[in-house]
From TrEMBL, chain A:
Regions crossing the membrane: 12-33, 62-83, 103-122, 142-165, 177-197, 209-230
Keyword Transmembrane helix assigned: yes
Protein name in UniProt: DUF4386 domain-containing protein
Segment forming the signal sequence: none
Keywords on record: Membrane, Transmembrane, Transmembrane helix
Record has Metal-binding as a keyword: no
Automatic annotation (TrEMBL), chain B:
UniProt-recorded name of the protein: Heme-copper oxidase subunit III family profile domain-containing protein
Segments crossing the lipid bilayer: 23-44, 95-114, 134-155, 176-197
Entry keyword annotation includes Lipoprotein: no
Source domain of life: Bacteria
Example of a GO cellular component annotation carried by this entry: plasma membrane
GO terms for MF: cytochrome-c oxidase activity
PROSITE patterns per record: COX3 (PS50253)
GO biological process: aerobic electron transport chain
Pfam family name, one: COX3
Gene3D superfamilies for the chain: Cytochrome c oxidase, subunit III, four-helix bundle (1.20.120.80)
Organism encoding this protein: Novosphingobium colocasiae
Membrane topology category: Multi-pass membrane protein
From TrEMBL, chain C:
Coiled-coil intervals, chain numbering: none
Compartments reported by the entry: Cell membrane
Pfam families: COX4_pro
Protein name: Cytochrome C oxidase subunit IV
Membrane topology: Multi-pass membrane protein
Source organism: Novosphingobium colocasiae
InterPro entries per record: Cyt_c_oxidase_su4_prok (IPR005171)
Assigned GO CC terms: plasma membrane
Keywords of the record: Cell membrane, Membrane, Transmembrane, Transmembrane helix
Annotated transmembrane regions: 7-23, 29-52, 64-85
Amino acid sequence: MASAPMTEDNSYGAWKFCAWNGMIFMAVFMYFWGWLGHNLPPFAGDAPASEVAGYFRNHSDAVRLGMVTSMTFAVSYAVWGIAIGKVMDYAIGRGHILTDLQVWGAGLTVVPILVSSSFWLLGSYRPEALDDTTLQMIYDAAWLLIDLAYAVTSVQMFGLGFGFLRDKRAEPFFPKWVCWYSIWVGFMFIAECFMPFFKGGAFNRSGILNFWIEFSIFFAYAPIITWYTLKAIGRIRVENGD
Amino acid sequence: MYAPSTMPAETRKKALALPGDEGVFFFITADMAMFALFFLVFMVGQAQAPDIYRASRAALDPTLGLLNTLILATSGWLMVRAVDAARRERWSAARRNVIAAALVGLGFAVTKAFEYHAKISHGITLNTNEFFTYYYAFTGLHFFHFVIGVLVLAITQAKLAAPEGEKTRIWLESAAAYWHMVDLLWMVLFPMLYLAGGTA
Amino acid sequence: MKLSSTLAYGIIAALSISSFALFESQGHTLILALAVFAIALVKIATILNGFMHLEWQHRPFAQVLTGWLVVVGAVLAGGMFALPWNS
């Protein structure tokens, strides 16, 4: 591996901070987007419009705060992806296409999060002036976007998984099972395709399969990857003798 | 002095090694856990509305399900023959068996296409009722696994055309393990959807 | 014990056909439903053993997949006991 240009970089603090952004993202996403935005779990597809509209009207400030914070921190997902990409540079050599896919996948994941959050924010902006079905439509649009943008994130997961599988170290930065977990999560996301067809049951946006399982495997994803990314940065620091 | 004792140890280690790649087995385990959950969701739904499930099951043709079971089992057996051949470094025999496994396996797609088409033309869709939601979703996700499997077999036969020893053998064993998973998930899906639970 | 793949294939094919024939001829009862699932699980065990060659020394996967069989068996049997059956 080209070690000469690698050793020039010793900003491990910034690198680690970027890696921690995965956890910052998850914390913000769960509390501000999830809890304050009433998205954990969401209203079911068949929830009456008045129920959804009532939430926007009665908790408009909570939703505003939730979505403003969610939009502010959405980019931390991309920052995290860049930190992972730099570890991939060490694992499989600079400029590998799988690294590019991982970074771009993480970067583009920001877009649906940002845009769907802006929809929820829109609903909370003047809910008193909008009728129930309009507010319901805004809520639906946001959920359809965030769920069906799964493939963007799958690209990150495939890039990461297949990329780190090429790590030829005796003890690779990412264990095989983590790589395959990443690939599997990206693969299973395809179940999101069922979501638009249902308003109730296991495959609707709040159902056992489409929400609880799919989101749980995603929520477990970021901490696992962040843990191994931070460990790898520590190992690279030792290898470089910094 | 060392040679005679290390040789059997090496051979023994090889014999005990997991067939294929442990990462692929992790993927398979995770996938099977997901399907186990699908089975649970189905059983809970069925217990809550047995009449709907029984009436709907009567619309399925179990003969097609049986046909697909036999297709997948035959294809799986051909994959085992491929792995056995590769372990003896008979690469072209391995490749022939992989191609045969893929060709036989494609019969599954033909049957499935025929079956889906017949259902849809009778106006039975994903949203007809809960039974058919699960029928389409679970067989659809299983079919997606099948399609990926066929692609993997296509890559595998290409690799077997220019084998690289151990590396190719592990690839083949991993592909076979995945293919067997597609087979064994169907072994539950078939009785669960088409047979057991009763028809009205 | 290592199961020959051809024997495994024979077992799977024979069990598939016989469970289907049994079910078609005898109608739908709880006992038959349980038997159909039991046969399915035997077929899966045969695939794990005779096709995948997954044996006891392949821990943890052999144990996890055996556990999977037990859990799925319980889910399927539980699902059948939860249904109303005539006679």
